Amino acid sequence: MSVTMEPRIQYAKTSDGVNIAYAVFGDGPPLVYLPSAYGIGVHYYSHMSYTRRSIDQMTAAGLQVVRYDGRGTGASDPTEMEPTLETAVLDLEAVVERLGFERFALLGHFGGAQAAIAYAARRPERVTQLVLRDPWASVTDMYQMFPGNRVLAAIRPFAEQQWELVCINIAAVGFGLADSDMSKDYAAAIRSGITPAAWVRAEQATEKIDVTGLLEAVSVPTLVVMDMALPGRAPAAAADWRGPVKRIAASIRDARLVTTDEFAATAVEFVRGAPTTAAAGSTPAVHGAFQTIVFTDIAGSAALSQRLGDTAAQELRRVHNQIVREALAGHGGTETKHTGDGIMAAFASASRAVACAVTIQQVLRDAGSRAVAQPSDQLRVRIGLNAGEPIAEDRDLFGTAVDLAARLRDMAEPGEILISDVVRQLVAGKGFLFNDRGHHALKGFEDPVRVFEVRWQEAAS
User: Fold this and answer.
1) Do residues 266 and 327 both lie within one domain?
2) Any bridge partners for residue 280, and if so which?
3) 88 near 211, Cβ under 8 Å?
4) How far apart are CA 202 and CA 196, in angstroms?
């Protein structure tokens, strides 16, 4: 019998003082999965294998998935206010600010698509990709996709007295009765995830929220998915869903519309910018999301081997690799490849990338003298960072953004962290200290590059 691991719940406070419960699953480029039906999010993970399976598949394929409960649901603060589009956006903002994400992908499912659309339209500079899974823009769309919701509207007055019966009807509307286990799971998730009064308020709010007018303002790369593997979806019902989903895709500039029964794989491929599994031969080169690239390099590696011998030098490399990988795990970085005497990694957040580099130098400073018998043979590392949109191919990253990060690594002295001006601007106001090293002519770059040194010795540990 499989055992479901409970997610580690953390909290973010909104600008209007509400504590929002969230959990982070996996490592890699961040994908923020908004609450779906009735504003419930991470609470579904513990109660529904359908939701759990999608998240587990996306994290296994290399994404960091964030789920959270909207205000008044799950483990978030209860509230007697009727939810609105604006409060849904406030909840989202609280979570991404708490996690320090500068740029991230958004996933909106069912009614959760409305807040995702609103945020992407208003803050396109922060959204790398927008994924809309069976979305609706208005109550008209919702009733076309779920005609049974008109029945739910009729039984709202009985929610307090007959909550268990109402939850069974909610499950029947959402998943049908063909899969009784799924319906039981969903009914249990609703019953424990939201109070009857909060459910009524959520139903009333659904009738008022309409983001149709925001669709044309969405400019970020968008994938609209019609998920044919949704439990309980009959072929006859697919026609009811197709109309609203197609209208949303047609209204968003350059949106891609996909019908699939492999939602998780489709979403991962879109967010990561490359196929999730390599076919025979090379995968095609595609432009990936905006990322911060980090290169580390053990200074004087060849000389270390001559002085210490191959065995001791290799032990130093193992120490370096362990420390770097632990720092990557702690700051949300993804190792791209090992370069022999260093590691290349990618981050969705520039501030997390710089913080990771600082952590590496601080830990290596302390661990280097303990790694070998003689304190003079310390482990010294050079680190370079740049940000941009690299090209993803065969599970590696290429292009100008990567080349400049490597050049900065090569330029750095042992124990230094050098960053480009792009990275400096992205982390402005985040508490880091810098020295302006001026403009430098770097190999392969026509124009001089402005370089900054991170004053990591003065950074808070």
Assistant:
1) no
2) none
3) no
4) 10
Q: Compute the chain's Rg from CA coordinates.
A: 25
Q: Report how far Cα 178 is from the mean position of its chain's Cα atoms.
A: 33
* Length reported for the chain: 461
Q: Work out whether strand 104-109 and strand 30-33 pair parallel, antiparallel, or are unpaired.
A: parallel
Residue type, 213: G
Beta strands in 4-143 (DSSP E): 10-13, 19-25, 30-33, 64-68, 104-109, 127-133
- Stretches where the chain sits below pLDDT 50 are 1-4, 178, 234-236, 274-287, 369-377, 460-461
* pLDDT at site 380: 87
Question: Strand pairing of 417-420 and 381-388?
Answer: parallel
Instruction: Mark which of 272, 301, 330 sits at the end of a domain.
Output: 272
**pLDDT by residue (tens digit) across 196-251?**
999 999 999 999 999 999 999 999 999 999 888 765 554 445 566 778 998 999 99
Residue 451: per-residue pLDDT = 95
Taking the complete model, does pTM exceed 0.70, yes or no? no
Residue 72's pLDDT is what? 96
* Cα angle 40, 47, 44; round to 5: 20
Q: Which of 84, 86, 90, 128 is nearest to 106 (CA)?
A: 128
Locate all alpha helices (DSSP H) within 299-448, ordered by sequence: 301-308, 310-331, 350-371, 400-411, 421-426
115 vs 89: CA distance, rounded Å: 6
- Identify the DSSP state of 28: S
**CA geometry: angle at 365 spanning 363 and 371, to 5°?**
90
Tell me the CB-side half-sphere exposure of residue 122, using CA atoms within 13 A. Answer: 13
Give dist(CA 73, CA 44) in Å, integer: 11
Any idea of the CA torsion for 160, 165, 171, 172, to the nearest 10 degrees? -130
For residue 89, is it within any domain? yes
* Distance of alpha carbon 120 from alpha carbon 282, whole angstroms: 33
- Domains in the chain, number: 2
Give the span between the Cα atoms of 437 and 453, in whole angstroms. Answer: 7
Rounded to 5°, angle at Cα 4 from 108 and 19: 50
Q: What CATH number is given to the structural domain containing 59? A: 3.40.50.1820
Last residue of a domain, one of 216, 249, 272: 272
Tell me, yes or no, whether 336 lies in a domain.
yes
Sheet of strand 391-393: strand arrangement: 286-287, 391-393, 396-398
256-260 vs 343-347, strand pairing mode: unpaired
Q: In 10 A of CB 236, how many CB atoms?
A: 7
Q: Is 347 helix (H, G, I), strand (E, B) or coil?
A: strand
